[in-house]
Every structure is written in C-alpha cells, then in structure tokens.
UniProtKB/TrEMBL annotation:
Gene3D superfamilies: 3.30.420.40. It comes from the Bacteria. NCBIfam families: T6A_YeaZ. This is tRNA threonylcarbamoyladenosine biosynthesis protein TsaB. The gene is tsaB. InterPro entries: ATPase_NBD (IPR043129), Gcp-like_dom (IPR000905), T6A_TsaB (IPR022496). Belongs to the KAE1 / TsaD family. TsaB subfamily. Residues 30-135 form the Gcp-like domain.
C-alpha cells in the first residue's frame, strides 16, 4: 500500500504542491519566481481539501531539498518543517535534479536523463541519471565521485563517466549555457522539463518511505551543493 504523502517544492522559479493518496495524485503548480511565500500554503490547502484529508491524516511530508535557488530552497524547507512540526509528520527530502529526471520519464518516457539547473555565476547544478527496472533512479558519479555537483559547464566534459545511449536534457541550464553543454560528448535529445515538480517528488518519496528513509522535522536539511557564494568586488570596495 502506498503512503499518503504531501510534497512541495519552491527551489526554482516554479512553485508546486502535490498530494499522493489512494493511487492518485492531486497537484498544483505555477511559475511564480517572487511569489512562493504567497502561493505555497494556498496550494497546500487546495490539494488537501480536494483529497478530503487533513495534515494529520498524512504519513509523511516530502520536500525538494535542492539544489536550486538558495532563497527558494530555504523557503521550501522552512514551510515544510512548519507543517511537519504541527502535524508531527516525518519528512523526506528529495533531490530536485532527480525529480526532473522523474518528470522527464513521466512526460517523455526517457530512461536516461541529464539534468542541469542554471546556478548563476557561470555554473550549473548537474546530475546524470539512469532509470532502474523498479522505477528508481541511479545517479551517475561525475565530479570527484559526487553524484550531483555544481560546476562550470565548460569543465563538465572531462568528468563524464557514462556516455552510452541517448540522454534527454532537463532543466534551465541548457538554455543558459547552450554552447558549452551542447558540445558535451553525449548523444542527446531535447526535453520539455524545465523545473522540478512536487508530483514527481511525491513519486520518489514513495521509494524512500518504503525503505524507511525519513527524518524528524528538526533534522530535515537542504542540499545547496555550493558551499559559498562568490562575487566581484565593486570598485572602491575593500
């Protein structure tokens, strides 16, 4: 039996919520870069009302743990923690890059996905994924053994370890750094997925629930990948 899971994500320009219950998914999604804090809770109320349940009826609360916008990731995890605390729910963090791989399978049936989110500062958040027979995704190690990384796109080619087959592109990084990424030594096809969606986070969270991979609300943590933010000093500033 599948778990009753509420999922939410605000890690990118997209804001989304999904409820997975009784084998069906109720979802809301809107690209609203500056309105996440206004949109997310009304979306939660809508899907719970449509599903005919309350927060206390859920088994778990899933959230997009990143990578993505620092502010967006913080908003998402903060709201998710608040909801989980109030309803005493365990939490499940899901990679936003893996969620885009799942979305690409949902929309295009692609089983090999290369996901790239524009990380600004001439870098991308990168992940390469192969779908397994049970529906889970295997992340392929890229930079220094990391399965997901932040990296300048022009440096990515030297770290690729899996190049066989045709890979479907997902994420905003492909439009932001077209020249560098299109020159990768991979056979690729364009995809339709730009952002992670809560409905795909809910699917991936089911696998984690079945394996017992949940945490208490106070232990939920983001994945930024970038440890620090760098910027150019303004003229005259020390």
């Amino acid at each position: 039996m599948s778990a009753k899971i509420l999922a939410l994500d605000t890690s990118t320009e997209n804001c989304s919520v999904a409820l997975m219950i009784d084998g069906r998914t109720i979802a809301r999604s809107e690209v609203a870069p500056r309105d996440h804090t206004k949109k997310i809770l009304p979306m939660v109320d809508e899907v719970l009302k449509e599903g005919g349940i309350t927060l206390q009826d859920l088994d778990a609360l899933a959230f997009g743990r990143g990578p993505g916008s620092f502010t967006g990731v913080r908003i998402g995890i903060g709201i998710a923690q608040g909801l989980a605390f109030g309803a005493e729910l365990p939490m499940i963090g899901i990679s936003t890059l893996t969620a885009m791989a799942q979305a690409t399978y949902r929309t295009q049936q692609s089983e090999k996905v290369v996901a790239a989110i524009d990380a600004r500062m001439s870098e991308i958040y990168w992940g390469q994924y192969q779908r397994q027979t049970n529906g889970e995704w295997q992340a392929i190690a890229v930079s220094d053994g990391q399965q997901e990384c932040v990296i300048p796109p022009q440096e990515l080619a030297e770290y690729l370890t899996s190049k066989e087959g045709v890979w479907t592109q997902a994420g905003t990084g492909w439009d932001a750094y077209t020249e560098s990424l299109d020159s990768l030594p991979l056979s690729m096809t364009k995809g339709d997925v730009l952002y992670p969606e809560a409905q795909d986070i809910a699917v991936l969270a089911q696998f984690e629930w079945q394996k017992g991979n949940t945490v208490d609300a106070e232990q939920a943590s983001p994945t930024y990948l970038r440890d620090k933010v760098t910027w150019k000093k303004l003229p005259g500033r020390e």
